[in-house]
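Task: sequence design from structure.
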């Protein structure tokens, strides 16, 4: 231990004698280690950390598999009850239905996101309330369900953490709920809800064809996911046999709850983590080159230590110790880099990373940082240690140029490291280029409407005050009239599904003359009740036929408008006008197609195009509707007068999601923009490090070949020949690196497929332009040392020793 301590002290003194070298090496490594630690903190918090519940590995999510869809969908109420009663693999199983509720009673009305759940919900999660109790058996029965458990944050923010909150009432959608408990700190499922209340499952009004429930279950001890899936599939087949009309082809899928929560963000996070790994490798290659060059300059010192009795293992340990000192110093600064990186991440506010504000540097992250720092230190020390052990004493003691430590093999290793840097940089630059191309393609996508001068907001009417559809229709009719009269308003309309973040209300439909034998194999369409001026307010192009009019609100008209995708796939395009369709959700009547409009992207600007059917909103007005107001002036400037117009009809209605359509569109591609920026930053960082690396190697090569260059010039070589000689060496390294990088990019960019829009992972333009740019920039980095080589004085060079 004493010898090791001596090695560390000697390593620190050696670095202190060359502070510029130490600073460059430490900062380069700190950059690589720090960004890796920051990304690991995100990976750890989102992918690796178990859910904060008891035995989280036994919590599963259940969904319905359906012939009409290629993904799991919600569960019908009768199916849920049958699944619950016919299984023996779950300890508990809970239904969940989320919605937004209007909270009134104090101040302005407020929207609260809440969840209606089975009475055993908190027992399923084994969540013990902070105050009060959870739900008791029987409270999910009619007449007993008006109780509520508050989230910890709602209790803290609205009720001041008062323990006297129990027994108080909440007025939600005009109905009173008694507060019986407060959820424990940190409990949040689903993550966005602020209270829970028991659900009353009504099979009379929600038949098997109505899929609207989520479900969570806890596996019994010793039961595996595969065993549970097998039994639930048997239950689903039994239900299918009993109810073939509604359940033909309908099954069940079980997914671990943790997997369900991260399945959509995992690919992007792993791509970003791999990217920062590349940055670390490039930083290591740079520092390894510095260490090799430094070791060459120390060959006389090493030779003297060998003569004085230092053995091969002693020299190897000394070099490893010095590299460990560097890496642990870098770890200290890496913590600062990681902290700054996380602060930058929070400033970007990425929706694709859940709960980003609570991600921090913890013991797991510090352990990871120390582990990779130790590994980096060992790896960096291997190359100079290996060459130190192969020292040629006679030549080193004479300090002859080109002899001593490393010789040709040391130069070859430096060249290999530069090639690796260029190859890794190319992979990151290609990835960033693909994301940039994808983002540009996304911005050029037509959303199907004119987003300028549009104000949007949501309103939800409580059942208690608007029990009948006639009441709902009357409210919206009057609200539209009041808003239309506001100064600065050009037109106004309502819709159930407002792009680009629509509510997925869909169901089967049949084209007249093409009814399927199995109803569950009928095609699917988005149902969207809209007011007559909807398409004019959005300026959605009319492709064929006409728009909806006020006359279509007459229930005898039975007129609908469909989008281009539906017309093309099921009606032969423009020929759809005049044909009839039957929509199961609208009473099974025949509806005439009177118009075809341009496609709108309902679920994000980058979402796929879905068949959509627009019904007159009087035929089935929803209690929750979205308003779209086209203005003559800046849209947010009229929000106050529009708000007063709504409150003049009903003063207890809150507004949600008040924003311009341009803000909605910007938010819809925020995730892709975030990934593009982050990968672009990593690629730029890698490029800078690589250019510094190739510049350093070429500068070192020129210094090592000073005598050779002098001899060449003394024998008549012109400056252009020397320039070509040095640039040629750099170009060869660059081309080899680009060739290796292209192979790596072709193999790895397929992992970017889920992050791209309208661009193939092997996009020809990107794979052609990026290598050319990298080659040009690399040659530029080689030019400075090459130009320096042309200024070598032959007389001075021939005396160079």
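Answer:
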């Amino acid at each position: 231990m004493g010898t090791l301590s001596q090695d560390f002290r000697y390593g620190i003194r050696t670095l202190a004698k060359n502070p510029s070298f130490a600073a460059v090496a430490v900062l380069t490594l700190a950059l690589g280690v720090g960004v890796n630690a920051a990304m690991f903190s995100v990976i750890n918090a989102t992918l690796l950390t178990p859910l904060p519940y008891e035995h989280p590995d036994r919590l599963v999510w259940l969904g319905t598999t359906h012939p009409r869809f290629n993904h799991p969908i919600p569960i019908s109420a009768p199916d849920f009850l049958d699944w619950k009663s016919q299984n023996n693999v779950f300890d508990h199983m809970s239904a969940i239905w989320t919605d937004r509720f209007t909270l009134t009673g104090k101040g302005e009305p407020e929207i609260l996101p809440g969840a209606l759940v089975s009475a055993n919900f908190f027992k399923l999660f084994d969540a013990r309330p902070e105050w009060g109790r959870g739900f008791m058996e029987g409270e999910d029965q009619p007449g007993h369900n008006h109780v509520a458990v508050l989230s910890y944050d709602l209790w803290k923010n609205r009720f001041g953490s008062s323990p006297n909150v129990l027994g108080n009432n909440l007025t939600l959608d005009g109905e009173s709920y008694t507060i019986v408990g407060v959820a424990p700190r940190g409990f949040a499922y689903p993550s966005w809800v602020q209270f829970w209340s028991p659900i009353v499952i009504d099979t009379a009004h929600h038949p098997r064809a109505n899929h609207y429930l989520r479900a969570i279950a806890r596996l019994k001890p010793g039961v595996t996911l595969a065993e549970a899936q097998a039994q639930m599939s048997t239950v689903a087949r039994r239900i299918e046999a009993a109810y073939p009309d509604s359940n033909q082809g309908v099954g069940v899928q079980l997914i671990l709850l943790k997997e369900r929560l991260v399945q959509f963000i995992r690919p992007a996070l792993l791509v970003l983590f791999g990217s920062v790994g590349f940055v670390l490798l490039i930083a290591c290659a740079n520092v390894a080159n510095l260490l090799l060059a430094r070791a060459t300059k120390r060959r006389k010192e090493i030779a003297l230590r060998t003569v004085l009795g230092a053995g091969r293992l002693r020299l190897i340990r000394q070099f490893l110790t010095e590299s460990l000192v560097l890496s642990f110093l870098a770890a200290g600064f890496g913590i600062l880099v990681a902290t700054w990186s996380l602060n930058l991440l929070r400033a970007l506010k990425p929706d694709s990373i859940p709960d980003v504000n609570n991600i921090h540097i913890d013991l797991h992250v510090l352990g990871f940082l120390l582990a990779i720092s130790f590994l980096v230190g060992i790896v960096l020390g291997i190359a100079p240690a290996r060459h130190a052990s192969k020292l040629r004493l006679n030549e080193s003691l004479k300090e002859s140029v080109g002899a001593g430590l490393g010789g040709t093999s040391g130069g070859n290793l430096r060249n290999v490291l530069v090639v690796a840097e260029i190859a890794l940089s190319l992979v990151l630059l290609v990835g960033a280029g693909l994301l940039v191309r994808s983002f540009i393609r996304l911005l050029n996508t037509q959303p199907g409407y004119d987003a300028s001068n549009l104000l949007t907001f949501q309103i939800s009417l409580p059942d208690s005050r608007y029990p009948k559809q006639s009441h709902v229709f009357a409210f919206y009719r009057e609200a539209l009239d009041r808003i239309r009269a506001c100064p600065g308003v050009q037109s106004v309309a309502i819709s159930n599904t407002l792009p680009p973040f629509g509510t997925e209300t869909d169901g089967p439909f049949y084209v007249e003359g093409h009814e399927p034998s199995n109803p569950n194999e009928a095609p699917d369409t988005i149902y969207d009740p809209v007011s007559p001026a909807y398409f004019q307010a959005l300026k959605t192009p009319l492709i064929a036929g006409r728009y909806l009019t006020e006359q279509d609100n007459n229930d005898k008209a039975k007129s609908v408008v469909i989008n281009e995708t539906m017309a093309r796939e099921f009606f032969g395009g423009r020929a759809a006008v005049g044909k009839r369709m039957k929509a199961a959700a609208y009473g099974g009547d025949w509806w005439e197609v009177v118009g075809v409009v341009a496609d709108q992207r309902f679920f994000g600007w980058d979402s796929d195009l879905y068949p959509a059917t627009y019904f007159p909103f009087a035929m089935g007005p929803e209690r929750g509707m979205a308003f779209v107001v086209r203005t003559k002036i800046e849209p947010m400037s009229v929000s106050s007068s529009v708000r007063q117009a709504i409150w003049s009809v009903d003063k207890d209605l809150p507004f949600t999601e008040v924003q311009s359509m341009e803000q909605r569109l910007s938010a819809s591609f925020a995730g892709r923009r975030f990934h593009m920026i982050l990968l672009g930053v990593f690629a730029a960082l890698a490029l800078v490090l690589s250019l510094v690396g190739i510049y350093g190697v070429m500068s070192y090569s020129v210094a090592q070949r000073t005598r050779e260059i002098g001899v060449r010039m003394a024998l008549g070589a012109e400056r252009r020949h020397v320039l070509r000689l040095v640039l040629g060496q750099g170009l060869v390294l660059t081309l080899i690196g680009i060739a290796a990088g292209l192979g790596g990019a072709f193999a790895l960019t397929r992992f970017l497929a889920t992050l791209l829009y309208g661009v193939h992972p092997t996009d020809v333009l990107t794979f052609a332009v990026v290598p050319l740019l990298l080659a040009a920039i690399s040659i530029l980095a080689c030019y400075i040392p090459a130009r320096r080589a042309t200024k070598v004085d032959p007389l001075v060079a021939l005396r160079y020793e």
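Residues 67-249 form one domain.
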